[in-house]
Specification:
Chain B: Keywords: Cell membrane, Membrane, Transmembrane, Transmembrane helix, Transport. The complex is a heterodimer of chains A (431) and B (310). With 431 residues, chain A is α/β, with parallel strands linked by helices. Chain A contains 18 helices and 14 strands. Chain A has a six-stranded mixed β-sheet with strand order 2-1-3-12-6-13. Chain B has two domains: 54 residues, no CATH class; 229 residues, MetI-like (MetI-like fold). Chain B is 69% helix and 0% strand. Classes of the chains: A alpha/beta (431), B mainly alpha (310). At the A-B interface, helix 1, helix 3, helix 4 and helix 17 of A face helix 7, helix 12 and helix 13 of B.
Chain lengths: 431, 310
């Protein structure tokens, strides 16, 4: 479940605040090599729940057996706590030996500061065993800074029963159809969309996808390079989103809703209280875990790609999303890289695909995916014509956060599409 | 200890030797005993303040050493930052609400609990219980209480930019009123009963007794309670972070939350340091002025007046 980027427990968010204090405690685990000749590998990952929590531990101990003298020190962290704790450690010049990464601007900023190892030569050794675009999110300027583990994409997860009841018989293929479906769902007395407004990142998916459909992938790349988002394409994307907001499609009180809390976005869909959510490949698992009786929607759950926008430059088959990978800290022992190679072995990647229900990047492990929903995602990914990483990871942190904040304002009906584009441009220029 | 041995037995010192004793203060011993505390204070309090002050003059993302010196730019930017100015406004709002509503209610409850009520021990314990909880636990509890569809107080209190600050104030009050109540109760119980007896004998009603005896004699307690309340509000973080995350759309952010957002989410460490310096300066200025002008008579003879040398 390493690709899951949500708050497992809301209160753990506070662990992030406590992380500053943790640095003090963290001073003690700086021993890379001890005098006895054992080499410690500090490994931070975000699979803080089973099945992957124990699978990673098992994989580490198998590696230890094969490599005498290597000793793992694993720290599983909740997503938000991980980000904060990692930031603190990296700013202190003490990155863990192996740590989770989503790639993109955040990783490249770490690379620029010399905090992670350049893995171009090492990962190049097993690059050919991976699916074609696997390393894109972790590579910049011809250099690769992390090894990919799994992949995925964002799309609409919907309740087939509620759609049928509202008379929406086929998943909408265009934005106009989509708005129409939302109107029908509302007319049928169903809440069309669940959204975690408190956490902001789920909201930015809408704006990002619309920008991709309206302006195309190049527009997103160009805007980041020019530090200019105040272009007609981005304003048009905001305008399309404002059309959706005007229909008031979200659940009551969505601005204060979390993602994976008892009454959050995932639970609302999982309990059949809203017809759909725009979310990544992990959505079915989280819906199930947070729904009443941990049942989720089962067979009623369906998946469709983000609709195309009429007259847009982007392809309806361009996908938005991301997976997880591992970066290696600057002072890591060579065995850390050896371990990344170890988990990229097809038999090990297959374990992850089978037990955790994620899409492996190792091509030979693809056959281990059995979940029908995940197969749908895999099929959409395989047929994709382009890929865009989550904007809050792809761009520099300040820009990514501004995207999240500004889109949240738009979703709350408190900002115009122009103001959103302008605020992001300002943040990009400020750096 | 060394100097002590050389010192004559205390009985040998004649009473007028006050000045002599002052001159002979055993400085090495003082230094020895002070040094651990001074070392920790310097390391954990002074150093971070100095580092933050230094960082606040740089445009710095926290990686490596700061190199892009920008002078007072970060502070200038603060003045035009809507969020930061909003933080100040929201802090003022919370202070006003706390002093105007929470403190009077606590005072009233303390007066009530001072009366011979049936089960007043139980009430006392119940009122104090929320204070024992951590802010985080309180906030998690109230995210459930305010849950829009299944909460005890269902509705969009936390989801509406117009109501979120009042919901937040409600939670803060729930957590802290018991603490202030206990302070007032202790203050009230230290007022000698003779005063009220005498007032009653002179024909003073309950309101007059409260107005002219209880309230003036509770002065020191009230002043301390206001002091704690204001400082707590300026530094408010945990509860907001867990309860609202500063949202919806940054409408409930406090100074500390904005600092966290800038420093840890946007990697604007220099700018975040500037915010932390502002928090520090506001707290210190308030603390000093308040002690100088408001708490002065309560502290008469205590350490801060430096034995009348001021």
């Amino acid at each position: 479940m390493s690709s899951i980027r949500f708050n497992r427990r809301t209160f753990l968010e506070f662990a992030g605040a406590g992380a500053a204090a943790a640095v003090l405690g963290g001073c003690s685990d700086g021993e890379g090599e001890s005098s006895t000749g054992t080499r410690a590998i500090r490994w931070w990952h975000i699979a803080n729940t089973d099945p992957m929590l124990s699978q990673w531990a098992a994989m580490a101990s198998r590696f230890e057996t094969a490599h005498p003298g290597v000793k793992f020190k694993i720290t599983p962290l909740e997503n938000e706590a991980f980000k904060t704790k990692l930031t603190t450690n990296i700013q202190a010049g003490d990155p863990p030996d192996i740590f989770h990464t989503w790639g993109g601007g955040v990783l490249f900023q770490q690379a620029e500061a010399g905090m992670v190892k350049d893995l171009t030569a090492d990962v190049g050794g097993w690059k050919d065993t991976l699916i074609p675009t696997a390393l894109d999110a972790y590579s910049s300027g011809g250099k690769t800074y992390a090894s990919a583990v799994d992949t995925g994409m964002v799309g609409f997860w919907y309740n087939k029963e509620l759609f049928a009841r509202a008379g929406v018989n086929a998943p909408p293929a265009t934005w106009a159809d989509y708005l129409d479906a939302v109107r029908r769902l509302k007319a049928a007395g169903t809440t069309p969309i669940a959204l975690a407004g408190k956490e902001k990142w789920p909201g930015h998916y809408y704006w990002a996808y619309l920008a991709m459909r309206v302006g195309g992938l190049d527009a997103l790349r160009q805007a980041a390079a020019d530090k200019n988002f105040s272009t007609p394409d981005f304003v048009a994307a905001g305008t399309r989103l404002a059309e959706l907001v005007a229909l008031q499609p979200f659940q009551t009180g969505f601005l204060a809703a979390g993602y994976s809390t008892a009454d959050g976005q995932a639970a609302t869909v999982g309990n059949g209280k809203a017809a759909m959510e725009l979310m990544g490949q992990w959505a079915p698992v989280v819906q199930r875990d947070n729904s009443a009786g941990k049942k989720g929607l089962g067979d009623k759950l369906g998946f469709f790609a983000f609709p195309a926008v009429d007259g847009g430059k982007g392809q309806g088959t361009d996908v938005f999303g991301g997976g997880g990978g591992f970066a290696v800290g600057k002072d890591a022992p060579p065995e850390a890289i050896e371990f990344l190679k170890f988990i990229a072995q097809p038999e090990n990647a297959r374990i992850e695909a089978k037990t955790a229900g994620v899409l492996p990047v190792v091509a030979a492990a693809g056959d281990a995916v059995t979940d029908p929903n995940l197969k749908l995602v895999g099929k959409a990914l395989a047929a994709s014509t382009g890929f865009q990483l989550y904007l809050d990871q792809a761009y520099a942190p300040a820009v990514g956060q501004q995207v999240n904040d500004s889109v949240a304002e738009l979703l709350a009906g408190k900002a115009t599409p122009e103001k959103v584009a302008q605020a992001i441009t300002t943040a990009a220029k400020q750096g | 200890m060394l100097t002590d041995e050389r010192r004559p037995a205390p009985a040998a010192i004649p009473p007028p030797a006050e000045a002599v004793r002052r001159r002979r203060r055993p400085w090495p011993t003082v230094a020895l005993f002070l040094s651990p505390a001074l070392f920790l204070f310097g390391l954990l309090v002074l150093t971070p303040i100095v580092v933050a002050a230094y960082a606040s003059f740089f445009n710095w993302n926290g990686f490596g050493a700061p190199s892009n010196f920008v002078g007072l730019d970060n502070f200038r930017r603060l003045l035009t930052d809507e969020i930061f100015v909003g933080d100040l406004r929201r802090t003022l709002l919370l202070i006003t609400l706390s002093l105007g509503i929470q403190i009077p209610i606590s005072l009233a409850l303390a007066m009530l609990l001072n009366e011979p009520l049936r089960g007043r021990r139980v009430y006392r314990m119940l009122f104090f219980a929320p204070y024992v909880l951590s802010e985080v636990v309180t906030a998690v509890l109230f995210t459930m209480v305010f849950s829009p569809n299944q909460g005890l107080i269902a509705g969009t209190w936390l989801a509406d930019t117009d109501t979120v600050m009042y919901a937040l104030f409600f939670v803060i009050s729930w957590k802290y009123f018991g603490f202030h109540t206990i302070l007032y109760l202790a203050g009230r119980q230290s007022i000698p009963p003779e005063l009220h007896d005498a007032a009653a004998m002179d024909g003073a009603g309950p309101w007059q007794a409260f107005r002219h005896i209880t309230l003036p004699l509770l002065g020191p307690t009230i002043r301390i309670s206001v002091f704690l309340s204001v400082l707590g509000t300026i530094q408010l973080f945990d509860m907001v972070w867990v309860l609202t995350g500063g949202g919806p759309i940054r409408s409930s952010e406090t100074l500390a939350v904005t600092m966290f957002q800038e420093g840890f989410k946007r990697y604007h460490v220099g700018y975040a340091s500037a915010i932390s310096m502002v928090i520090f300066l506001i707290s210190v200025t308030f603390g000093l002025l308040y002690q100088r002008f408001v708490l002065r008579r309560d502290l008469e003879g205590a350490v801060t007046t430096m034995g009348d040398q001021r």
